[in-house]
Structures are given as C-alpha cells and as structure tokens.
Amino acid sequence: MSDGRREILLAHGGGGRMTHALVRDLFLHAFDNPALAPLEDAARIDVTSGSIAFTTDSFVVSPVVFPGGDLGKLAVCGTVNDLAVCGARPIALSAGFLLEEGLPMPLLESIVASMRRTCEEVGVKIVTGDTKVVERGGLDQIFINTAGIGVLAPPLPSGAATVRPGDCILVSGPLADHGMAVLSARNELRFDTTIESDCAPLWDLICALLAAVPNGVRWMRDPTRGGFGTVLNELAAGRDFGIEIEEAAVPFRPEVRALSEILGIDPLYVACEGRVVVVVEPGSAELALATMRSHPLGREATQTGRIVCDPAGRVVLRTRIGGTRIVEVPSGEQLPRIC
Amino acid sequence: MSDGRREILLAHGGGGRMTHALVRDLFLHAFDNPALAPLEDAARIDVTSGSIAFTTDSFVVSPVVFPGGDLGKLAVCGTVNDLAVCGARPIALSAGFLLEEGLPMPLLESIVASMRRTCEEVGVKIVTGDTKVVERGGLDQIFINTAGIGVLAPPLPSGAATVRPGDCILVSGPLADHGMAVLSARNELRFDTTIESDCAPLWDLICALLAAVPNGVRWMRDPTRGGFGTVLNELAAGRDFGIEIEEAAVPFRPEVRALSEILGIDPLYVACEGRVVVVVEPGSAELALATMRSHPLGREATQTGRIVCDPAGRVVLRTRIGGTRIVEVPSGEQLPRIC
C-alpha cells in the first residue's frame, strides 16, 4: 500500500515479507490446490507412462480488460487451447506474473479471479508460479506467461501428415471476434460495437469431438495470432496438397465485417481465442459438425472449405462472384498486443 | 530490418512471415531438437510412470548483460536450479520471449546463444516457445519466462518435515556474487569491481551430492531473490526448530563485503544464481562437503550453521564478537530487477 492506495510496489517482487503476503493472500487463496500449497520451488505431478504435451504462451493484451474477457481468462484459455488442439487433456498450468509498480491491486485481483474461474471451468490447476515487479515504465501494467502440461491419450488427431485431398475444413464458430473486440476497446478507437471476444477454453468441445469421431480428426489448430488465414497457410506450406475455402462460407459476424471494412483490416488474419479449425476426413464431417453444434462453444460450427490437389502448398479463396485469390501469409503485424 | 539496422519490429510478433522467419532462423536454429522441430502448438514428451516436477520463473534482469552472465544464461539456470533443488533431473524447458520493438537483433542473438550453451551444459532441451513483441516503451528491452519439467526419482531430499536439531547447513560457495555483480554493472553505479555473477546450472553438482549421501540430504534451496537470509527464514518459519548461523562462517568474497558496505546493503539478502543451501543430517556433513568441493561449482563449499531447538521458527546469527541477532525476513526490496 502506498498513500492509502492499494497498488503493487517493488517490494511485492522482492522475495521478502510483502512477496510472501501477496503469494499467500492472493495467489494461493485463489488457486489453492495440493500441488501448489507447499510453495516449493517446483510442483510435483504424478504421471503414468505415456506422452505428455508441454506448451507456453505469454500474454500482453492491451487493454487488459476487453468485452468478453480479460488478460486472466485469456492467459488460461490460450495455453489450455494449445494443449487441446494437440488432443492433450490439460492437467497443470504455471503462471508467471510480470507486474508494473503502481498496478492497482483491484485490477490484479480481478484478473486472478478470472484465471481461477477459467481453470475451474476446464478442471485444470495452476500448480506453480512466479511474480516479478518492474519499476514504473519498465512494462505496461501486467503481462502473464502460462505454461501447461497435458496428457496425450487416444483418441488423438492423426496428424498433418495424414491430411489428404477431399478432407473437410471445419471451424467451430465465427472468426475474428477476439481481435476485433480488443481493438474496439482501445482508448484511441472506442468504437461502439457489440462485438465480444470469443475467448473460451476449448478442451471440453475438442474432447467431445475426438470421442465422437475418434478416427476422423486429422488436424486441429486454434486460429490465434495471424488468424484463420495464417493457420491454413501453416497447414498447407510445403505439402503436396492445397486448401480451398469459400468466401461465402467463412463465418464472420456482420459487426466484425463492418468494423474490418472501416479499419481496412482483413478479418481472415484476425485472432480468435476460442475457436478451433478442424480438418476431418470426409466421411466424418457430418457427425463432427453435429457434435460441435451440440456444444455451447460450437453452436455456429460450419464447413468453410476442403483440402484439394492444386495448387499444392497454397491456400485459395473462392470469392462470392466466382473468382479466386491466393490467401497469402501476411508479412507484418496488423494488430499488435491482441493477445 | 529498419533503416538497414537489424532490430526487432512489431511484425516479428505478428504471427506472419516475419515471426516464422525469426522462429526458424534464430530459435529453431539455436535450440534444434526433435520435440521442438515440428513447431506444433505443444511439444510431445515421453514419460514413464512416476512423478515429475514443474516450475516457472520470469527474468527481468537489468542490465541484460552483466559480469559472468546474461539474461539468457540466467533464464536457463534459474529454472534448471528450481528443479534441481527438488531433486528433479531437468528434461524439458519452455521459453517465452517478450521483446521490445527496436531491440537490437545482435543482442537477442547473443542471449539466445547463451541459452543454448547453458542448455547443452545441463543436457536439457528447449522444446516449446513463444515470442511476443511490444511497442517501444511497452517493456524494457527483453524479458524471458522459462518453465521446466524434471523427473523426480530417488535419491531425493527427504523434505523440510524431516529437518531436525543437529542437522548441518552447508552452502556450495560464496554468497551474493550474482546480485552484487548485476548491481555493479548498472549504468548509474559502474563500480570498478571484479565481482562476477555465480550464475550456473546446479543439476550436475546436486546429482553428485544426492548420489554420494542418498539418505543424508534433508532439504535444498537455491538462495535467489531474498538471498540466504530469506531462504533460511522460509525453512524455519512455523517449524519447531530454529536455525543458527555463524557470522564468521557465512562465505562472502572480500569485494562483495566491501561493495555491500559502501552501498549499505546487507549481503545476507542478496541473490545468488548458482549456489545451493543444503541441510544434511550430521553424519553426512563431511562426505557431503567433500563431494561438493570436488565439483567445480562447489569448490568453496562450507558449513555455515546448524539446526537448533531454540528459538523455534527463527534464524539467529552468532556474530564475530560473540553476540547474537535475529535474521529477519526483509519486508521490502533491496535490489529490484536483479533476476
């Protein structure tokens, strides 16, 4: 506390009494579980023989609170979803907090509460963490890194190497909501839109999908940074197949389309944080879609394209008026600090 | 590149072609290994039944290059050591890079090379990573988060609950070198000292120690943030034993002692990044010390104190002139951004 205001001080990162109090009163209170409670240098997790998945992501979104979510929800969803698209059941997360001196304590508390709620939703636990405080101006408010461990057990996607012409490309819902919601919340813009981030943990949806079509899912990816257009290019690059998507079938909300046009941003490259792109073999497409649509996070799931023979290694968009254009990987950055 | 200078641009964090190029040409080139190479959203690691240790740490040291190390070496050592003091053999690390727009590419390259060298020394691999770029002024140069997974297999420390009066407290070498080296490298100070950071990966030393006295090690901790004084307090707090250390036996280099006096800093609370505090049962102390001293990172290992009955829960320093004083946990922050 400083001048009666509750805010983060350098002392909260010093490793002394104030650090211990912050860890005990805020983090341990919110994330309490048997693995975290001993506050040892590392948490102990029991595993059985097999494969685990391990991933990490740092989150620097600005503003830290946006329509439909905040940095805390995003930091849990992002890492849970990176595990989920590999078919891994998330079991443990780490949380590394980077805090600016002067950060209002109520803001940190609300972000931590949001992490806790999202963890509970997924059934994953934050078992280890770290907090650093940097002097005023040394970082912008708060960044969070999460790393995650998941258990890989069948049914799993069969992998990018098994993708072949004829396979169907499904998406679990409208695209680009997250990026456009964050953008519309920026002070300099303050667009009066109703766009909310799609930020959500996908494991439950993906688990249901894998169970429904255990041999049908070839490949999955969450279209975060770089959006749908980039994810498709990552799949196609260097392969002996191409990807064709139908402009009319790529799902964007009307508000997202409108704001994109005003800002001159192509929503094909705008991040989602609660959508999954799924490649399934053709015979499984109908059941996969029905399964996704019966889940709250996949109600608007749709088929947007398919794997084709030509042009190999490229992504082609068939436009509404019957033309085609190549969907390139963008070189630069449309939207910094969207996640 | 901008104006012919090689530096980090926002586009390097955008998820597009420049991000891919950075990942491929810098990170994948430096850290190349089979788990990282597929660049999937998560790395796959095979485990056998048992327990793993999981930890995370963020590093915000300033300056990023200091006598005896840099941010990259520190980011690997810090997480490796958190695993090692739990008795866990480090097997996989994640690396989350937070970069400021305009960061000179040669600086990033040298930090990455340093991470690679340290990983090779330990025999641990960086299997998954993430890169975010924040606009100029949004963070100070570069921060790195590492999370780590280690395998817990006997011999392990028997745990803080097994510590009892009569046990010996050993340290693997002189204390406070890291913190004082970083401090002496700060622009505003520029002390002309010969102090070098002790920053080093401790797994090899700890592995040898556990093998030599498999049932003798009760508890270990690396005295990083908060230093030796804080670590001892963490061990004693709330326990039915106390800790007594001999002022004359706490090892500080003369340069560290001198600089501490000039700056009015108590070196008992200054971070090491390559030292370990070990509590051993009395019958194992001699062999434990001999084992540590035969290792390059433990040549100056020494006994500094012991576990006592009274005062329970406290740490007492016996001074050179025969008095005693309580070693308190500092409330605040002596040295921000030392790790």
Separate helix tally of chain A: 8
Enumerate the strands of the largest sheet of chain A in spatial order, edge to edge or round the barrel.
9-11-8-12-10-13-14
% residues in beta strands of chain A? 25-35%
Question: How far apart lie the N and C ends of chain A?
Answer: 30 Å
Helix residue percentage of chain A: 25-40%
Strands of chain A, count: 14
Main sheet summary of chain A: 7 strands, mixed
In terms of quaternary structure, the protein is homodimer
Q: Quick one: CATH superfamily of the largest domain in chain A?
A: PurM-like C-terminal domain
What is the averaged pLDDT score of chain A?
A: 94
Number of self-contained structural domains of chain A = 2
**CATH class placement of the largest domain in chain A:** Alpha Beta
**CATH A-level architecture of the largest domain in chain A:** Alpha-Beta Complex
Radius of gyration of chain A: 21 Å
N-to-C SSE string of chain A, H for helix and E for strand = HEEEEHEHEEEHHEHEHEHEEE
Description:
The structure is a homodimer of 339-residue chains. The first copy, chain A, is of the alpha+beta class and 339 residues long. Chain A folds into 2 domains: 10-152, PurM-like, N-terminal domain (60s Ribosomal Protein L30, Chain: A, 2-Layer Sandwich), CATH 3.30.1330; 160-326, PurM-like C-terminal domain (Phosphoribosyl-aminoimidazole Synthetase, Chain A, domain 2, Alpha-Beta Complex), CATH 3.90.650.10. The first copy, chain A, contains 8 helices and 14 strands. Chain A has a 7-stranded mixed beta sheet with strand order 9-11-8-12-10-13-14, with helices on both faces. Chains A and B meet through helix 1, strand 1, strand 2, helix 2 and strand 5 of A and helix 1, strand 1, strand 2, helix 2 and strand 5 of B.
